[in-house]
């Protein structure tokens, strides 16, 4: 693709204002994800009685529209991103409510809706859209002191967290809390409230441990692996990483995918380490770090508060989700079923992350020209 600098068409202006390095990093992650899905999923498909390329085909089917969504959304102005976020957040909340009444219970949780034969996890879509709406409310509160933006943002956070905990999904609640807390802090949260909310977060963590048996079980097993037999997947994943060494055992030579039920999703990093070595794992880590740091650099001198807050929220979601997945695999934190962005198998996660990164690309474009594009 090539456009002259004098090209004033929508695509021409997009090409010279969008962060092409971030796009390249995200496409590289998606390519690595396809490679690892091809390595990990045939064994999983065989265990459930599906044909060998079942997950590979579905991953590709979701990846194409996901990348299309990402690039299409990146064409938007900040104002259009804000409108999309409001509409998407409203739809996500409706689906979160529907989940409580219509979704089947799986492993003690109700998180998935079946719409027209497609399984959708609404909590994946609520994260990026919440980041946009919350950023808008905090920004309006600063720009218009009489507008109750902070109160609205706090109310929307409480509603979202309540709906997520009713499923229950403590992990997604943690991510939404991190998004909201980061934006509140950047919007000028007084230091007294910073301390108060920090203490409240600690109380909430203790409450989750007491209220939710699965949270208690995971933390107990993390602190004392001998407390139960639920450490099998983590122990197996660590052994796979050790056996892979620096350069791996070679494509197709891994064994962890033959025994781990979640080798293509939560523990796909173990497959990467065993077959392609620590080198690939470090490359993946570097790509995630690059996207986050590059995004923060792009908004460092931004004057539009909404753009700063929304970008920060989207980057926190992206980076935290990657950290949780990798840290769980390496037993640096209690296990939490959270996908590795653009790499793990999963349609809802892929589409929601593509939406989030499309919004980020749109918000971090160099803005000049018309008022609509500026704002």
UniProtKB/TrEMBL annotation:
GO BP terms, alphabetized: cell division; cell wall organization; peptidoglycan biosynthetic process; regulation of cell shape
One GO term describing the cellular component: plasma membrane
Entry's localization field: Cell membrane
Pathway: Cell wall biogenesis; peptidoglycan biosynthesis
Domain of life (superkingdom): Bacteria
Membrane-topology descriptor: Multi-pass membrane protein
GO terms, molecular function: lipid-linked peptidoglycan transporter activity; peptidoglycan glycosyltransferase activity
Main location: membrane
Record keywords: Cell cycle, Cell division, Cell membrane, Cell shape, Cell wall biogenesis/degradation, Glycosyltransferase, Membrane, Peptidoglycan synthesis, Transferase, Transmembrane, Transmembrane helix
Transmembrane segments: 21-40, 60-77, 84-103, 147-165, 185-212, 267-293, 305-323, 343-363
EC number: 2.4.99.28
Chemical reaction(s) catalysed: [GlcNAc-(1->4)-Mur2Ac(oyl-L-Ala-gamma-D-Glu-L-Lys-D-Ala-D-Ala)](n)-di-trans,octa-cis-undecaprenyl diphosphate + beta-D-GlcNAc-(1->4)-Mur2Ac(oyl-L-Ala-gamma-D-Glu-L-Lys-D-Ala-D-Ala)-di-trans,octa-cis-undecaprenyl diphosphate = [GlcNAc-(1->4)-Mur2Ac(oyl-L-Ala-gamma-D-Glu-L-Lys-D-Ala-D-Ala)](n+1)-di-trans,octa-cis-undecaprenyl diphosphate + di-trans,octa-cis-undecaprenyl diphosphate + H(+)
Family annotation (Pfam families): FTSW_RODA_SPOVE (PF01098)
Family (UniProt): Belongs to the SEDS family. FtsW subfamily.
Protein name: Probable peptidoglycan glycosyltransferase FtsW
Gene source species: Magnetospirillum moscoviense
